[in-house]
Every structure is written in structure tokens, then in C-alpha cells.
Here is the input.
Amino acid sequence: MEETEQPAGGRYFVGRKDELIEAKRSFRTLEDRDIVIIYHQGVFHAIDSYCYHAGGILANGDIEELDGKLCIICPNHKYKISLAKGEGLYRGVDPREEQRVPRWYSKGVKQRVHTVTETDGDVYVQLSEERGWIESDYYQGEQGKVNRAKA
Ligand code: FES
Here is the structure.
């Protein structure tokens, strides 16, 4: 695990851009929160490291575009999580429709997403300040980390 510097203006330095690009997926712990920084198609994303469903390690997931949204697919049970907002996405049909055409639906925000910025080749993460409970918070707490380890 790499150490991070003290935040300037709430931003944590997480690494040099070229190193993070090469790594593609980088694990960091900021304020006891485990996150993964993902570099994909020229863009950095940062999300909670453990899947909101049962604590799967998202750093090992594939990335696909679904319904126009880049999503990480949890390697455990294939839940789909948008990288931009942390929405849980699923494909289903509306039983009220005559022609039951499968389409993508959102379960709402399930995974906490953090802000990545870059200055002069240095990359910073600002942790989400979204208030209220987001399901991925569970696996950042002590009990969640214990249960994740048992799974
Ligand atoms: Fe991620 Fe189940 S732990 S889909």
C-alpha cells in the first residue's frame, strides 16, 4: 500500500499521472477509506474499492459501456456499476409493457465515487462529500471489512 500526502484543500496526492496510467488500476487508502483509481480510455475515475453488493474487489473487474455509461463489472456476481456516478445498473423488462423489450434500469447510486483532478502531472483525489448513506459505505466500516474477509 502506498502512502499518501496530507491533503491540500481536501485533495490527496495519489501519484504521478504516468505511473497511474501504467498501473491502470491503483489501490489507495485515504482517511481509512479504500479506493481504487482507474485509468480507462484517457480518463481517471476513483470509486470505493469494494462492491456494494458483497464486497467484491472492483479493481479486478472488467469495464464495459452499457446504455452509454462506462461501467465496471464486479468480478464476483457481475453487478454493473457506472464509473461516473456509482449507479447500480441492471437489465430488465417492464411487465406492464405489451412488448417486453429488455432495457437498462438504474437502481440509483450504490457505490461512492470520488473526484479525480490533475495538476502538472500530479493526480489528486478528493473524497466524496455526498451526505447520507451509500451502500458501498458498509464495506468501508469495520464490520463490513470483517464480513468481506469472510466471504
Ligand atoms: Fe460484487 Fe456481488 S460482490 S456483485
User: Anything to note?
Assistant: Helices lie at 17-23, 142-150. The pocket of FE2/S2 (inorganic) cluster is lined by residues 51, 53-56, 74, 76-77, 79 (CB under 6 Å). The CA atoms of residues 78 and 150 lie 19 Å apart.
